[in-house]
């Protein structure tokens, strides 16, 4: 009886994601209830839109402050690469394009780190308010947590190909 119980636990660990507090997510789900393909497609569409809006924001920032535009551009570069990876997946769903999706999510986390470092420089050397740094820290932290989760979802999705 104990062996059967251990085998059943091993099967659950193989297929499902276990979260703190006992919440279990099926391997074929995103956000606990959305089919994983739909979830990854939604993440992808939002990433492509984010990249496009980032370019427009960069153009607007260029007219306001060149130093801020350089910092913003540095943090936007990983977002654009991530958007490109998701766009490739959206246009052609193959094991190769799926394999790039976890990297795309990691690039968003990198973008948040670059943006936060840039904000520190801007506060220290160009007189921006300390409140803007705290705002960026909170926003970057939330984004990083979400994209760590999305990276796991994309990894499961890529492995299911």
How would you describe this structure to a colleague?
This protein is mainly α. The protein is 80% helix and 5% strand. The chain has a two-stranded antiparallel ribbon. The chain has a two-stranded antiparallel ribbon with strand order 3-4. Helix 2 packs antiparallel against helix 3 (66-91), helix 2 packs antiparallel against helix 6 and helix 5 (101-126) packs antiparallel against helix 6 (130-159). The relative contact order is 0.11.
Keywords, separated by commas or semicolons:
globular, two-stranded antiparallel ribbon, mainly alpha, 80% helix, 161 residues
Q: What's this entry about, in short?
A:
The protein has 161 residues and is mainly alpha-helical.
Cα Rg: 19 Å
User: What distance lies between the first and last C-alpha atoms, to the nearest angstrom?
Assistant: 35 Å
Helix content: over 70%
Largest sheet: 2 strands, antiparallel
Instruction: Report the sheet-strand fraction.
Output: under 5%
> DSSP helix count?
6
SSE order, one letter for each helix or strand: HEEEEHHHHH
What's the shape?
A: globular
Task: Note poorly predicted spans.
Answer: none
SSE-based structural type: mainly alpha
Topology:
Layout: H1 2-15, E1 17-18, E2 24-25, E3 29-30, E4 34-35, H2 36-62, H3 66-91, H4 95-99, H5 101-126, H6 130-159
Antiparallel strand pairs: 1-2, 3-4
Helix pairs in contact: 2-3, 2-6, 3-5, 5-6
């Amino acid at each position: 009886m104990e062996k059967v119980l251990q085998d059943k636990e091993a099967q659950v660990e193989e297929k499902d994601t276990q979260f703190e507090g006992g919440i279990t997510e099926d391997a074929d789900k995103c956000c606990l209830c959305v089919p994983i393909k739909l979830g990854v497609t939604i993440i992808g569409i939002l990433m492509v839109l984010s990249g496009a809006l980032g370019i427009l924001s960069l153009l607007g920032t260029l007219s306001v402050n060149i130093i801020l535009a350089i910092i913003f551009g540095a943090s936007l570069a990983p977002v654009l690469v991530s958007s490109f990876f998701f766009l490739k997946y959206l246009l052609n769903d193959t094991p190769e394009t799926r394999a790039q999706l976890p990297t795309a999510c990691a690039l968003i986390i990198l973008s948040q780190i670059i943006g936060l470092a840039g904000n520190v420089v801007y506060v220290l050397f160009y007189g921006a308010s300390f409140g803007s740094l705290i705002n960026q820290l909170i926003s970057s932290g939330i984004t990083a947590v979400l994209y760590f989760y999305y990276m796991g979802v994309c990894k499961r999705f890529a492995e299911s190909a």
